[in-house]
Specification:
The termini are far apart. By secondary structure, this protein is mostly helical. It contains 10 helices and no strands.
């Protein structure tokens, strides 16, 4: 199967617009193209909010779309919107990447090689990564939360999903997601003396 390699936009980076993408993924390359183009910025944003390395960002963004293309035939519109389905795949791809040992990652890199980036690609990615610095710092500030609480909080406060959308990404019901948001809120408020003014918006979002 031909591998999807993202085309790095040659323009100043900016947060992607929050639109409700409706184009469903299709397993054929031609049909998948529209889905790819509609969701590229969202996936790149998701990735650059979690890594500061241009090469890793390019590799992971491409990996997400490769995985989505391979799973496109399994997409069920009854289970939720296409973009939330894609965020679920992105979350799994990044989790798999960070679970891998350094030796395994090195072996994969030696076998497959990195996707080739020219200087313009790297510059565009660095701009995008710099634009997402605040989101990465926000995520790091609540790193002391347990993983179930943090993953919900990341999707809602960092990625801008609604609790309903976050529930779809995580495969949970909305009641569970709202409960975790409330628990995260309580945990953050308990640490209020060490919470900076930049973290305060989190407490408002999960109210």
């Amino acid at each position: 199967m031909e591998e999807w390699v993202p085309l790095i936009p040659g323009r100043p980076a900016a947060p992607e617009r929050r639109t409700r993408r409706a184009t469903p993924p299709r397993p054929d390359a031609a049909g998948f193209s529209a889905f790819y183009e509609e969701n590229f910025d969202a996936v790149l944003g998701f990735v650059t909010r979690r890594t500061s390395c241009p090469q890793v960002a390019a590799d992971l963004t491409a990996d997400v779309f490769v995985a989505a293309l391979e799973a496109a035939g399994q997409y069920d519109p009854k289970r939720g919107a296409p973009y939330a389905w894609l965020y679920g795949i992105a979350r799994n791809v990044l989790a798999s990447h960070y679970r891998g040992s350094a030796r395994e990652q090195q072996a994969v890199a030696q076998l497959n090689g990195h996707r080739l980036l020219d200087e313009e690609d790297i510059a565009a990615l660095e701009e995008r990564i710099d634009a997402q610095r605040a989101a990465r710092e926000l995520s790091q500030r609540h790193s002391a939360l347990s993983e179930p609480l943090r993953e919900v909080l990341d999707l809602v406060t960092v990625d801008g999903l609604t609790p309903r959308e976050a529930a779809q990404v995580l495969g949970l019901n909305r009641a569970t997601v709202r409960s975790r948001l409330l628990r995260a809120k309580r945990a953050l408020r308990a640490e209020r003396p060490s919470v900076s003014k930049d973290t305060e918006p989190i407490l408002e979002v999960v109210s």
